[in-house]
Records
---
Amino acid sequence: MLIARTPPLRLLASISVLFLLVSGGRAQSTGGAAIIIPGIGIGQVRVGEGLDDVHRALGAPKLSDAAIGGRLFEVWRSGPAFEGRRQNGAEQLEIYFRREATDLHVAPTVRQIQVTSPFFRTASGISVRSTFAQVSSEFNIVVDEELTYVLNRGRSEKEIIMFVDRPRGIAFEFRNGAAADPDAGGYCRAIHVFQPNTNPRALRNFEQAAEEE
């Protein structure tokens, strides 16, 4: 009796384990679409990835702006980038591409990624909804005066402060006052990911660019 019953029990246990593994894999795959990985990428996009590969993964961008020198800025506000979830207002994914060479036949690659949507978060849960205290406890962020100057268009009264953890390849835009009120929410405006130990850019959104023209 015992020998006859053992195989079905083992089979049931094996099926249960297989189900858990498959379910766990799907959960990780779904969560990976929203994960911020410092120095690597955000969601389905990776630093160094080609333009065509990004378009295949995310579809056509909502906005696209080509600049001199092989630079390209593109914005997504819906679609596969957000797993079809609707975003509010200025919540978006912005990617800065640049050609590695002057040859126009060379496709531009991802140099920097910016998000302003809480859909994206690090493995530990850091997002644009995190407080200054939460971010500074996980990352060694310091003020980048040059980027801060650019973001504020040279004004002496600073509205936005750029904090950078250059060795890890991640930066945070905080509204002025975040460090003075570190436990309060609503200060983080954007998160950037770029190649570690390089200098990130101050990416202007399209509304700012229109105002300056």
Note: The radius of gyration is 21 Å.
---
Amino acid sequence: MNWRRSQSGTGYFDPLTASKYTSLTTYKRDGTPVATAVNVVVGGDIAYFRTWSTSGKAKRLRHTTRVELRPSGPRGKPKGDAKVSAIAILLDGEESRKAAAALARQHRIVHGIVVPRLHQRRGWTTQQYRLDPLNITSSDVPTEPS
């Protein structure tokens, strides 16, 4: 699969290719949104990002996998009005290795060198996530607090 910017402009995640960074919004148990900046690699209707297993976003994704993404700057400040909703799926095995390789190819310094070394030095477990287009009928959409 070609992990570079899509030339056709028809992929679900193509709005994210306009920026090097993406604001990833995850949700707390009470439905409160929390946005953080991540690097995303896009290939048509699939996208990947990574984090470490004890990060806040990884903890939030354990109970609510619905996310929203917007092109952003390095601090997560959104650029423009584009917004994409998705489901984040924790990967393992071969697909996780492929996602890590795709991230390392597209973001050579950050995900090819810095992130792997930093996570290893700190003893963190790196996790790759696949982003799938949001199925509106999904039961994973956050609900109002009781």
Note: The chain has one domain: 14-133.
---
Amino acid sequence: MKNKTAIFGIIAALLIIGSTMAGIIISNQENNNSLPKEELVSYFAETASTKFINSIGQPIEGISPPMFLDLFPNLREQDLDGVQTALGFYKYENNQLVYKESGPQIHSAAYAITEEGFETLLDNLAKRFNITLKSKNSVDTIMDKLYEEPPGSKELSFRTIEKDTYNLLTLRSQRLVTSQTEWASLWARMQQTDGLPSNVDFNENMVIAVFQGQKPTSGYEIEITKIIERDNEIEVRVKETSPGPNCAADTVITSPHHIVELKKSNKTVKFIFEQEIVYCN
């Protein structure tokens, strides 16, 4: 009897694996099917916009082309040449990206990228990456390449000073601290206790802190996941986690934060946020 049960269990497992593999194969085949250009553009616009919203948030005035530069490390200003907006277009000339108005900028969404703009951007990227636009897979390949680190980029090491779920700062914010005076002032606003959690040599190092703001329950978290140095800037990637509607969370006020120390730099610091919702059964 035990042998029969074991055999049935193996068969069931093989059936599950087989159906899963079949689903993956069918999905891959569907994504590789040739599609009309307008469907590829719509898929590209939806994918790029979703990634932007999940990472940075939903802008009230719509997504303007330069906003994508803050999200995709391998997107260049040249890629935005000719990209149309609601009331104008972007032009790359004299080694810089400039906005050309086609009429009075009568509303706040004037700079928002249009469907035609997404088509231009997709064509520019396909040309640079030498990719033939045929299927969803070709669009996915372009999206993957946009996340590749350009030559000359390097990941920086950092040390966590403190990562906790409570402080006295109630607003979502980011801080770059480059002096002992700033460090002492920030810590005093965060805590009710005297003293600093760590001595920092600000002749050699600097502090970066991210605060998620006051939250009504547990289950929230903010974390600096990666810091990347480029030719003209330091990019700080931050992951913010929130509990889903079905998650059991304690009804307690929290204020998650993460503070790190790294080598001092005079380059501009840019923060890139990724939003993640944890779903519970």
Note: The chain has two domains: 37-146, 154-278.
